[in-house]
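Render this sequence as a predicted structure.
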Amino acid sequence: MRIKLIRPSIEYADQVLQYRDTMLANGDSLDGCADLGNCRSFSEWIDFENRLKATYGEGYVPSEVYLAIRSEDDKVVGMIDYRLRLTPFLMQYGGNIGYSVLPSERRKGYASEMLKMMLAICRDHGERKVLVTCDKSNEASRKTITKNGGALENEIELDGETDSNEIIQRFWIKL
């Protein structure tokens, strides 16, 4: 296996902050990163539950966040999270799983590996199917989802619910 999924730890603090800076400088969204873009420090970010409960209140959903670490050099190449339940908003737009990969590490198959590994974690949690969404224009993400068994349910035009002007594609993956 080229990568492993691990829970964030202080050992990777510098790489996590570098990940944030790189993604923001590139104009990329930090999907699957537990709102990393709005955190100034690793210690602020790693306090997921308290921070996200304060941010989202009743809309807060517990999640499991993982770093995708390349085995050969211990480098963070991506991040992925699994949302343990779906709110109405997540059911429409966000899904159970979000992920992102560093721009320099894209087109190397990491997203597909990350999603495959996360699906096993979801299965261990008793999930029978999960919802994964992407912007219609994001061909790489669509290919990642379908490669992992995603079946398109429908497309939703955004109506000011998110920051995007996109059409969201909603895929279900049976486990």
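Summary. The mean pLDDT is 94. The first strand starts at residue 3 and ends at 6.
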